[in-house]
Design goal:
heterodimer; A: 224 residues; mainly alpha; 10 helices; B: 244 residues; globular
Chain lengths: 224, 244
């Protein structure tokens, strides 16, 4: 199973490096959203809960873009058939895709959080940066799991691009609640030690529940 | 197939009707008016049972979803579909009555400070995608499988979501079913229990009626198809409802 996962991840990373489809689009979309927020809210600088909200909504919408593209190559170029013909465990596709999506999200966030700090964030982000990175990574795992499930569910339907946001946004509300509440004190002036453990707990629980669930039921999305 | 769904339906319907009438009689003639909120509090006996039964129906849909995935029996898919579809209707009722109650007792149609109402809205928004999801998959076997996967994910989402939303907000909602036993007098608690039971029976009755109706439709269609010689009626309209 490990070989299959590694091969699938290698394939997706190579595809992304050659076509540069997902990550640049997600970054550009996020930057555009920051500009939109600047004009829509008429704010030069934001901090605290407002900053956390803007960051989270932007990241989530960017993630939806990535989720939409996640299985498109498999669907259009016959990758699903090829994978089903290979004598490997089907769960390896789930693990590989979730890892790839996780990697994309982390790559996007490196650029987007830096851009956010320059463009919109008022207080200096350095004090809260380690805690912010921790929250983002734990939440990314949840987005990756739920995104892979939703992506696999939606890619075989006719209303693909429509169903992904419709399903992914309500499902990620617990992540946004915990993520935004956890980030709000980190994005205020001198907010280095404001991380509340209970929000990390909610995020971790979410990752665990949906990770196990996805592991158990992903196979059913691939049967022919 | 038909006989299985139709059996006992008349008794069940009569029982449900009697219990519903009894529950409303208790609500209006037996339970005391709330000292604080007055008559408007009576909507509690409709609003809370609607919400509880709707959530129970969503979970039941998930359980039948699991059963379908394990056995591949299309009847389980039909049961899951009907449970979720009825729960959606009850959920609309719960949201509307909750809004009316909020207006009556707090003076606003909607409040974000109330975790239960907000969680319920999120759950409703998620399940509202169930029918569009089914409708956009043509192959009936795949439709059933994907709908079952959705019902399992969404079923697990319900408690997690309630927990997260509750943690995020201050307590405003009356917590009638707290672990400390709540603060309802005995007469109110009895009325409430009967109301929940009546609503649950109503749900089961409607569920059985829809199952019976759906399976009768399928039988009829199959018979017509045989009469027509397997040709004309085979291409039926695409639908979100499962086919047997």
């Amino acid at each position: 199973m490990r070989h299959a996962i590694a091969a699938l991840i290698r394939k997706d990373v190579r595809l992304e490096l050659r076509t540069r489809e997902s990550v640049p689009a997600m970054v550009l979309f996020s930057l555009g959203t920051f500009v939109l927020f600047h004009f829509a809210l008429d704010e030069r600088e934001v901090s605290g809960a407002l900053a956390a909200g803007i960051l989270w909504v932007t990241l989530l919408f960017a993630a939806v873009l990535g989720i939409n593209r996640l299985f498109v190559a498999e669907r259009e170029e016959g990758g699903f058939d090829g994978f089903l013909l290979a004598p490997v465990d089907r769960t390896s596709l789930f693990v590989a895709k979730a890892t790839v999506l996780f990697g994309f999200l982390v790559a996007v966030e490196v650029f987007v959080v830096a851009a956010f700090a320059v463009l919109l964030l008022g207080p200096s982000p350095w004090a809260g940066l380690p805690a912010l990175a921790l929250v983002l990574v734990v939440a990314d795992a949840g987005i990756a799991v739920i995104g892979t499930l939703v992506g696999a569910l939606a890619v075989q339907t006719r209303a693909r691009d429509l169903l992904v946001p419709l399903l992914a946004l309500p499902l990620s509300i617990p992540l946004v609640i915990a993520g935004a509440r956890a980030c709000a004190p980190l994005l205020t002036a001198g907010g280095g030690d404001g991380l509340e453990a209970r929000w990390l707990l909610v995020l971790g629980l979410y990752d665990l529940v949906f990770g196990l669930l996805a592991y158990a039921i992903f196979d059913f999305l691939l049967e022919e | 197939m038909n006989a299985v769904f139709g059996r006992g339906l008349r008794t069940l319907s009569l029982l449900t009707a009697a219990l519903l009438v009894g529950a409303f009689a208790l609500v209006f003639f037996y339970a005391p008016n709330d000292a604080d909120q007055g008559f408007i509090q009576k909507i509690f006996y409709l609003h809370v049972p609607l919400a509880i039964v709707a959530l129970g129906g969503f979970v039941a849909g998930g359980v039948y979803g699991i059963r379908y995935l394990r056995t591949g029996d299309r009847l389980h898919d039909l049961r899951s579909y009907v449970a979720i579809h009825l729960s959606l209707i009850l959920a609309v009722g719960a949201l509307v009555t909750g809004s009316i109650w909020a207006r009556g007792s707090w003076g606003v149609w909607w409040t974000w400070d109330e975790p239960t109402l907000v969680s319920f809205l999120i759950v409703f928004l998620l399940y509202a995608c169930y029918q569009p999801l089914r409708f956009s998959i043509e192959d009936p076997e795949r439709q059933a499988r994907y709908a079952a996967v959705f019902s399992v994910i969404a079923g697990a989402f319900v408690p997690l979501n309630f927990m997260a939303v509750r943690m995020a907000q201050a307590y405003v909602h009356p917590r009638v079913l707290s672990t400390t036993g709540g603060s309802m007098p005995g007469s109110m608690r009895l009325t409430f229990a009967v109301a929940v039971l009546a609503m649950a029976l109503l749900f089961v009755t409607l569920w059985k009626y829809e199952l019976a109706s759906k399976s009768a439709t399928f039988r009829l269609r199959a018979l017509k198809r045989r009469l027509a010689g397997d040709e004309e009626l085979w291409t039926t309209r695409r639908s979100a409802a499962p086919t047997l």
